[in-house]
Amino acid sequence: MMQVVLDALRAPEPAIMVLAPLIGAALTASMPGPRAAWLAATLSALVAAAAAILGANSLAKGETATGVAAFAAPLIACCAAAVVVASGALLKDFSDRAAPFALALILVMSGSWSAALHADRWIGVFLAVETASVACVGVVALSAAQDRGALNGALRLFGMSGAAAGLFLLGAGLIWWGTGAATLHGLSLAAIRAPTLTLLGVSFVLISVSLRAALAPMHGWAGAVFSRGGHAAVLAVAAINCVGALAVVLHLGAHILPAPALGAGASTLLGVLGAISVVVGSVQSIGAKNLRRLGAYAATAQAGCVLLGAALGSIAGYAAALVQLVAYAGAVVALQCAAAGAPGARANAMETMDGFGRRSPLAGAAVAAAALSFMGAPLTAGFLGRWQLMEAGIGGGAGWVAAAGVGASLAGVFYGGRLIERLYFRRASATARPAGISRVLLAPALIFGMAATAIGVAPEALLRAAAHAASGLGGPAP
Amino acid sequence: MSGASASMLAPFAAGVLILLVGAVSASTSPNALHRVAGVLAAICGSLLSLAALGMGQDVLLAGAAVALAQVIVGVALAVRLQEAYGGIEVDDIDAADAAAEPPERGE
Amino acid sequence: MNAEIALMGALGAPIAQALLVMLAPKPPGLRDLVHMGLAAVSAVCAILLVGAAASGLDARIVIARPLPNIDLAFSVEPIGALAAALIASVGFLHAVHTGGMVRASNMQNPTHLMALTALANAGAIGVALSSNLLSMFVAYELLIMAAFPMVMFGRGEDARAAGRRFLAPLLTASVGLLLPAIVWTNAIAGPGDFQAGGVLAGRIDAPTANILLALFAIGLAGAATPPLHVWINAAADAPHSAVSSLFAISLAPAGCVGVLKVAVFVFGPALADARAAAFALIALLGVGMCAAALGALAAQDVRRRLAYSCVVQAQAVVIGALLASPAGVFAAVLQLVALTCAAATLTMAAGTVAAVTERRSVDEVAGLGRLMPWTFASFALAAASMIGLPPFAGAWAKLWLITAAAGAGMVWAAVLVGAAAILTFMHLGPLAARALVEKSSANAFRAPDGASFLLVAPVFLGAVATLWLLVLADPIASFLSPLWRSPQ
């Protein structure tokens, strides 16, 4: 029986990772109450995650097709499962009527980003990205039950992602006009009759998706959403939306960079976006006095490092970018889940973390693991990613990439170190309530926090998977 | 755009202009409904440009569907903002949120 | 016991020490027994490693493989084995001394401090026994992270600023300079272990060699190479046991060992290509030595004075390592031995005095030598070694250092070392002399029984150790000689 189930999950893994969340979303939305909806959502997210893990295993063994999609889609599915499970403790962010819809939208986000990774036509990517974006706006808006400020965040996200939708369409149109290729695979093979316009189109598309990943300088919505959104919404935005968007940027880049007339320009654009994100995100993180904004800006800086790896345009650089994507996802999930469980977390203040490591050792360990990964501390996934980035940069003659990676680590030392200092070297205020973090929040936080550390100690499987995926620079054979 | 006819250039340029105006409005307008209109304008502007380039109907229809979905979500958001804040002016909303946020303490 | 087991014991015992001390904080007797017992185990294992290295035995253990083709591994080689034995042995004395300090000063939460010093020792021994640059980096970071809470220990909320002033330069240096240097080296030479003869030999040009050397030397800020040695200010006010650990046993010695290993096993003959950077660094260090000695002279707190004095000696080790000659390396190793023994003795003695008399300033300790003869006799011996007075360990080290500098054509460096020695005399000599010669009040002790055996014995044994280079200098030279034979 077990073998039948495994075979069923293994055969069409990409389809399951796309369809399971979407079907689950429909089921979840039809549930009568929040708890039933959460159970339905959890079930479908876990089915997708199971298929994802099998897919990841095959990738690590080199048994699947190469390409970013094969690597990133399982990651998104696992993140979505973590978010949905953790949402069980955060349902009070939504009204009872809205909770099923919110959970359904979270699943839609997951399925849509997976679909964007697997779509071959530009229009397919567009539809998937926009579906995910609209779902993201919806989740943030629905989380306004406890704090109406979430609506303000949703408005900012709506405006910027709506404008980005127009940009994406225009970009896709220019690409089609300049190359005649309606598919991603056709890009590297097409004869480009208008290189400048095509490059412009490519730039528009990449900028549009980068905006959803909260990459600077288009991350103006992130501060508002992260500081004012409900915890479940923030978790979904950080762990699914931003990770998914970053993965799609990498996926698109993998098809664009090998194209002869486009590679250099696209590489420059990715490099510039990455460098700006590292600098701006790092500076804002160091100056952040609000815990959730710190999380948002730290994520921007880390996302910049991911893009820098892709900007190198080499297989080593892409492998580094993929490893950093995993480190990014692990740290973000661990940090946001654990922080959501801190008493008084609603207030967003940094003081929430004072003494948290002693009051709730396991949750504190998850936050510490995330902070260490952001810092690039040895034996964490973050260190592995930074090392690979620096090595790829130095090996590719792009010392500035290595320098940017070092800068990101140094900034991470400051803001991550500050977080760890609060966790373990400060006392909670006299009025702080005892920490009693829910198990459904703690479990994903711990799992992802441990993964962020375990990967740093025994990274062979991840490195094999990343190398195998990156070897498909240009996309797997159609 | 060598070889492009003037008849294509004008609607393309107009579409790009509408996109730009819409994008700016969607991001910076002081009124929530104006932002919704900005999003609609941005997508419609891009659709106009695509039509000028000669893209197929399937793409245009997909774009129109996304525009519709964005407008529906945007209007719903504006209604919720009106209910929650008593207005849809972004400055007033920001001021109300700033007043509600606890003061940030130094290190 | 075979070499691999000794290697595991030397590294694992301090970690077990930290864990068990935290798990068994009461009764205090059991905790102290565990603390001292496992420190002794580590010392014994490390001393056995010296024997293994002398016999030419090859021992290597792999903990993990965190990067492609790069192991987190530890192995036996002459410099590392000697340094590990030194750190572990003095660490054992420090563990005994800490037991005495806890009782004499009624220390709050001593368990944490004991665990942190054990972890710091583990990090320092890890640096010494590291098999490659990655392993050295990981051990060094562990050391810094263990040292950081030590600086703030027992000082209340105000110590946070001191903790940040301590941590920021060390982490900035290690992440911003040392790590890129390590990645760059791996990119040039490929993944691999340290090699006698240098992994970079014949592979780099002069500009690259200069930049790499600067990155390594300044990146290992624990060795107090300017300009990122500013952590010293914050650490100098730490509790006495922490000062002993940081300046005499773990952080400063580990930094020095790191620079030595880089000079010998990473650069090797390629150090000659980095002459410009070496010149500049030696000049910085020479000036830094004099500045630190002047800082010690100005300090009225005994602990702070000794901390700066230790920095002078640590910078001398780095000068020796950068001289790009076997004589320089030999001088650096001798200086490291002298530093560790003398600095530990001095700082433990200061701790003993503070614990039993609550006297901390230079003027207050005058005359205490008559009431605490063993402690201050040991203090005087160690001070003489630090100054470089024969026949103590420091004298031979300074002699070799001056000889090596002159031999390398850097007479000015020799002059700076000499000047620093004179300044060291000025800040340590009168301190020891006044303690022994002047009169003090009879009721100096807080408790009627004065200083316990646990407080005095380690100080005395440390002082005895400052004499051992008299007989061990030649054996050390033979022990290190495989390093400057042809590369394998």
Explain what the structure shows.
The complex is a heterotrimer of chains A (478), B (107) and C (488). Chain A is mostly helical and 478 residues long. Chain A has helices at 2-10, 13-29, 34-60, 68-87, 99-118, 122-142, 149-179, 195-212, 220-228, 231-256, 263-287, 291-311, 315-340, 356-359, 361-375, 381-395, 399-425, 439-457, 460-470. The radius of gyration of chain A is 20 Å and the shape is globular. Chain B has a single domain, classed as Helix Hairpins. Chain B is built from four helices and no strands. Chain B has helices at residues 6-28, 32-53, 57-85, 90-100. In chain B, helix 1 runs antiparallel to helix 2 and helix 2 runs antiparallel to helix 3. Chain C starts with a helix and ends in an 8-residue tail after the last helix. Chain C is globular and about 65 Å long. In chain C, helix 5 packs antiparallel against helix 10 and helix 10 runs parallel beside helix 12. Chains A and C meet through helix 16 and helix 17 of A and strand 1, helix 5 and helix 6 of C.
Which properties best describe this structure?
A: 478 residues, mainly alpha, 19 helices, 76% helix, globular, C: 488 residues
| Quaternary organization | heterotrimer
Contiguous helical run count of chain C: 18
Order of helix and strand elements from N to C terminus of chain C: HHEEHHHHHHHHHHHHHHHH
Task: Specify the biggest β-sheet of chain B.
Answer: none
> Which band does the percent of strand residues of chain C land in?
under 5%
The amount of helix of chain C comes to over 70%
CATH-defined topology of chain B? Helix Hairpins
- The tally of strands of chain C reads 2
Rg of chain C to the nearest angstrom? 21 Å
Structure in a nutshell:
The complex is a heterotrimer of chains A (478), B (107) and C (488). Chain B is mostly helical.
Describe the secondary structure blueprint for this structure:
The complex is a heterotrimer of chains A (478), B (107) and C (488).
Chain A: H1 2-10, H2 13-29, H3 34-60, H4 68-87, H5 99-118, H6 122-142, H7 149-179, H8 195-212, H9 220-228, H10 231-256, H11 263-287, H12 291-311, H13 315-340, H14 356-359, H15 361-375, H16 381-395, H17 399-425, H18 439-457, H19 460-470
Helix pairs in contact in A: 2-3, 2-5, 3-4, 3-5, 3-19, 4-5, 4-10, 4-13, 4-18, 4-19, 5-6, 5-10, 6-7, 6-10, 7-8, 7-9, 8-10, 8-11, 9-12, 10-12, 10-13, 11-12, 11-17, 12-13, 12-17, 13-15, 13-16, 13-18, 13-19, 15-17, 15-18, 16-17, 16-18
Chain B: H1 6-28, H2 32-53, H3 57-85, H4 90-100
Helix pairs in contact in B: 1-2, 2-3
Chain C: H1 3-23, H2 28-54, E1 60-67, E2 70-75, H3 78-105, H4 110-129, H5 133-152, H6 159-189, H7 206-219, H8 231-235, H9 240-249, H10 251-267, H11 275-298, H12 302-322, H13 326-357, H14 373-387, H15 393-407, H16 411-437, H17 453-465, H18 469-480
Antiparallel strand pairs in C: 1-2
